[in-house]
User: Fold these one by one.
Assistant:
Number 1:
Amino acid sequence: MNPKPSPDSRLQQQLLRFAPGLFFVGLIVLWEAVCRLAQLPTFVLPAPSAIFHAFLNVEFSRWMEHLWATLSVALMGFAISIAISIPLAIAMMRSELLSRTLYPLLVVIQSTPVVAVAPLIIVLMGSDDPSRVLITCLLTFFPLVVSTATGINETPAELIELSRSLDAPIRRETWQIRIPYAIPHIFSGLKVAITLAIIGAVVAEFVAAEEGLGYFIQFSTSFFKIPQAFAGLFFLAFISLILFKSVQWVQQIFFGWSLPKKK
Amino acid sequence: MMMKCSRMLLMAAALGTSSLAAAADKVVFQLDWLPGGDKAPVYVGIQEGYFADAGLEVSIASGRGSTDAVTKMATGQSDIGSADIGALMAAKAQDDVPVSAVYPLFTQAPHAFFVLESSDIHSIGDIKGKTVATSPFTSSNAFLPIVLKENGLSADDIKLTKTDPGALGPMLMTGNTDAIIAWVTNVALFQSQAADAGKAIRVLPWSEAGLELYSSAILASDTFLEKRPEVAKRFLKAFAKSVAFTRDNPEKAGEDLHTMVPEVDPAVAAGQIRDTMKLIFNEATEQDGVGVFTPERIAQTWTYVAEANNLPASSLDPETSVKRGFAPESK
């Protein structure tokens, strides 16, 4: 028989449940109070109410146009990264030659600041979507390759030995043993990559774009519309959060078994 | 099948009725920064139909600085656009950049010191011993030593800090710096920001302190000028009309800009346009005519640009940066 939870522990549970929301609301209230009491000008730090007002002042259809411009680039870059990095990680796992040849190149690409490379990509490829997608890919594919490769390599050796002793072909070994073991790692990589995809799209928009949330923020600051820039920033953070949660939902729905068991 | 046929017929009909539009020459116009009141004329040209009347279909691409704009014209991503002629001269002195200046826009330097009205800085000479903030990538920085020298000062006489362009205004209003370096095209913007803080600003333009040169100009890719010279001429004629309309109707020009870029506030744009027009129409244009590059002022501009960029004066014949004959004749 389970012991009945004490009122204290029930309170603790409720507190745990609502703590993030309460903390967020408290922070907003504090922010608003500081801005009002100290009478800070909006160009120094706009109050949350001014940011909300600025958000409503921009037509909903304009928000959607900017959102779509950013989202389409981020999602295209993310999808292409998945399409390249997972097969690449598998190929690198199967061929030591490929692994030794490509890994240093991947590290070099990852170590080069994309902000520095972005203007060169725009010069080489033009200022349309393909160059923005490439900039996004450069940021997103490395964590995916590394996490997939790590997952594949962490498959227990005894399982591999067993499959080989049963003469299982490499294809089956990969798809039925290695990939399932790599799934939690792949999803860790996907969660990092999806937020990087948004960062990549914004970096690209800072360099060359005619619309998008990054462009909108840059545009707003050039007109000293700081509350509007903050509104764009929060919208961007919100979208990033939704995308992150979407990856979590995909894992829960289709690969629930790969999640750690809840206590 | 029927659906397909009727769709094709519709398309044929649409093509037939729009044969005039289809004949329009396409031109990509490159801005050197984001859309704003100082870039209004090209938007006015589209909205008021000046380009369409000249048989042109103009599209606009935003840029991220003069060097970026020159690069995009040089690589053929755009045909013609606005950028600092100084950036073009500096680029041409170091490399054979296939871009030329065809029409002057700003015949005065746009750079200025902005100080608070309450400050004891009344002339550029008063800046001695003061703190000055500037943004890291503005072309103004290159001309700063020259304007200081022309006023009997040296770079050591001021304390210069570099910061994000968006932080310049707040730094001035909050007293974190005595002066900032900005363009006179943004006087209205800084004034409204100062008004928010219950303050007022004073502007000390560098042009009044001896810095006489061409600044923003219409540049074009040499390929565009060689392959489609008539299109370039028609463009500049329509553009000149747009500039005159913008000068005479700043409010309407602001609305035209707002129609194409809804984020731009038409009233703020009108303020920027009024500030900008002083750089386009002034004593220099009264003397030389609108749209005219004089060899003397071109040579003077190069002297300043070479000095500002530490380039030998012999590294460029400044006249090679200019291609005359495309701009409409000055009245």
Number 2:
Amino acid sequence: MKNFSLMRISIWVYLALFFSYLLGPLVIMSVTAFNSPGFPRAAPWECLTFEWFSALFQDERILNGIKNSILVGVGTVTLSVSMGLAGALMLTQIWPKLRATYYTIIIAPILIPGVVIGISTLVFWDRVNRMFGLDADSFLSNGLFLTIIGQSTFIASYCMLVLVARLQRYDTGLTEAALDLGATHAQAFRKVLLPFMRPAIASAAVLAFLASFENYNTTTFTFGEYPTLTIELAQKVRYGITPAISALAFIIVLLTVFAALFNEAHIRRKELVAAARKSATVEELGSGNFRLPGFLSSNTAAVVLVVVAMMTIAVVGSATVYSPQQCIADVKEQKRMETEVRIQELRQRRADEAARRAAEQADQAEQEPAVEAAPKPSNNSGFGGVFAPGALQDDGADASEEEPEKPGNDSGFGSVFDPNALQSE
Amino acid sequence: MPQFLKEYFNRNGIGLGSVMLGLVLFWTVGLIIMPQLSMLDFSFRPNLPPPEIGGPKDLYTLENYKYLIFGPEGGSQDYNAVDLRVFYRTLIAAVLVTIFNLMLCYPIAYYLAQTKGNHIRVLALMLIIPYWINEILRAFALRIIFGETGILNNVLVGMGVFDTPFDFIRNDIALYAGLGYAYILLMIFPIYNVIESLDRNQIEAARDMGASWPRIHWRVVIPYAKPGISSGCTMVFMLSAGALAAPQILGGPSSLWFTQLIYQQFNDNSDWPQGAAYAVVLLVTCILLVLALMRLFKVNMGDIGK
Amino acid sequence: MSAGVGVNLEDLWIKFGDFVAVREANVNINGGDFFSFLGPSGCGKTTILRAVSGFLEPSQGNVLIGGNNMKGIGPNKRPTALIFQNLALFPLMKVWENITFSMEIKGASAKERRKRADELLDMIALTGQGDKLPAELSGGQKQRVAIARALCAEPDVLLLDEPLSALDLKLRQHMRSELREIQKRVGITFIYITHDQGEALTMSDNIAVMRAGVIDQIGDGKTIYNDPMTPFAASFVGENNVFRGRVKQVSGNEVMVTTNRSGDLMARVANGTEGRLKEGDEAMLFIRPEAFSLAPVGTQGDHFVTAQVTKEEFEGNTFNIFMEGDGGKEIKVALPNLGQSFESHQGEAMTLEYQVRNAVALPAGVLATE
């Protein structure tokens, strides 16, 4: 008995650790989107700000990347879902001796590194392009075409796997029945097979879009003049990170959570409707007015969905009226003071060692506090700033420039511990 | 028209059958087979400016492969020590990431597959959500955490574990954590799928006979889950070895991933044949490694992707 | 209703690679007939049906429907409708949409379709159930919906591929008479595939008995039951006792067979097989369980069989007695229960008598394996 509960506890601890590894980074990243420092960080907390979101929406390259990503996504979804469906259908009726080989070929792109797929796509279509004697800017070497082609190569395999799982439960007798009743092959496909496959096609399409949207390894070789959002993000992240990226990440996380909850709610609702249909009598079914369950009744996911939606609306609403101006000014003031203290100390030290100090060493020392100013106030930054009321909507202040402006003041730490005192200054 | 084609068109109709056949051929031949062959061919060619391609100088050569092993001709060293080190370091690191992921994910997969209840659905959802977030953003999130002033260093220094912030990035810890993080779902899912179909009675029977938990796993669950485990390991290994985003974002400045070399050949040096040769080496090595392991653990190709 | 379209199979061969599924089938099915193909599973009867419906191209020979050669005509262009073994109701369509699918294909309006569906639902006694999904129906109801769906296409020939095999015994017996009734009402040709001889006998105007791709015999139920032309037909249709032996003497339509265990027995030659048995030929003699009656133990003669009783059963309408038979298989005797008292004879010898007209002698051949 004791053993059992010990095991239970260790399972829960393990789960907790695992999920904090999984979700923690996303939560922390999301939090950094609302913190005012120019370098994304969750602690020390400085000021609640929404400016990174407006910075994000003003970034031409990000917006263009989103546009390209959607273009590529639509193309990839169309191509890879149709290829995946054709591939899956072929798998069910291919000559048995060829089956294993065929399966290996269509599953291989999942295992081929994305980099290799990108390179081979680029090299092959470049050659095709030259073979046709086309210019370097023909559609065959166009970034949009190449990216869609390259991504579809392996995304179609994912789609195929999703579709084949459903197809295995399809009774080919249904198609034969439709043909027998006079349908053409196309009609049988459209009216019988396709409706049956619809849920799997929807999953495959969502999967394909997400895979396309987040693909980097392949796209980085093929994008040409169509950099997708992921490419833009990677370039930004490689050459300096800002909380605007966190803001984007937060939006994506939120959208994902929404989508997931919506999907859950939808599934649960379908179950409930099916249950209601089952218990309904013939007359009720005929007249169509049997009692359907309410959208929220016994549907936890739907409830959570509504709650999250309302919270989002509340946050967005408050974001339009909230301004971190005051808080940022306070933090600035606080940092300025702190820097001054350090400068004072430095001056003291410098005075002591003045004789031995060379001129360039002094320069270096003077820069130090400016660089380290950001991380230092971790132990005494006031959380009060979060609650600071602000009336101004103008948020032009750039938090990344937090250089002390007016050195010379030698006030102590006393007021730093008291945010209210700071505000009243 | 051969018999099987005739039957095929009888079964699917001329129009629909042609569309299907066309799509499958385009995919398998045009997108999978031809590009790979084309890349292989390209890797044996010298790097020439476009006008000279197909000209008299365009002869097959082993130059690009020699370069990986011996370095530039007339170079000071006997071997291309830098690139070779990157190569084997990449493979070893990918193996380590795979093992780490397997150990991390097996208990979770087992728990999810063999436990009933509503919370399993919630956990599964929480498992899938991070996978929907962009790969770059996931790496970015880890960079925030592992940065010199990141939250992890704040905590560790605050607790007194370290005196000064530890450089997770330079020590490649961030990279390994990031790679492991990126492919958790790909490890859990295949294992979960297999274990879910394991009859609980088998476990109960083993327990009934007095087997300890480690023994039950070793003798009953793991042998049963072997296809899933190898499927997950194959995917994680291949994807880690072929990863590009995570090493670019989370890798230390001095340590390169092999894919980064390929990337450099293509984008910085504009030496496509050289890049293609490196890509071929990566692909072939990975495939051989995976095939060898599959042979070792007696798993079939057909089990992959289930 | 376009009644009376006949179906002809002319020298039909169907091969899958080296395997011959159907060999030289020649069948004439009259318009408006209820025609059954009866045979064990794997005998090629479903293959014939698929050739008639157009899912299979014959390797050789022709399928004629209403006198028209169907070569090269796809299943969607043939005047046939097939009821699948598993019914193949479209799971995502409501019952009424299922029934009127053939009209939807032709572009009929929803209103028209609804009206026709209601008529057909009335016919199959499922009034008002059109808005259900197939999964919400019981087995027998699905069955009837499948029939309605096929009839809605107004076919000249309805093909049924063991449609009752998934139902339980009671329902199966009920559906037999219902099917027969529907066939009489709509008056079109039904081609029915079954391995259940009871179904074939009760419903059919004519039956073709099939074995391993070959049609052994075609005839109405009575003929096949009373005058089987092959040992297979004799042993597959209904229960039968077989006595192996050699022909001792032929006299007109009667033959004397020296059986392996039961001495010389007399039998008649089945209609249509006259002249096929010669003196000295290996022969099989068939006597049905119900053709026996009890005789005083030890009676000798050419229509008496004496053997040891091994087992007895009481089945309600009959007493079944099993006796040591020839070739390991027991002789079964079914005595009608007419209220007589019956005492056990297990382990004892017993003598049976039969009428010579109820025993059929055939050249030795393959028996149906049970």
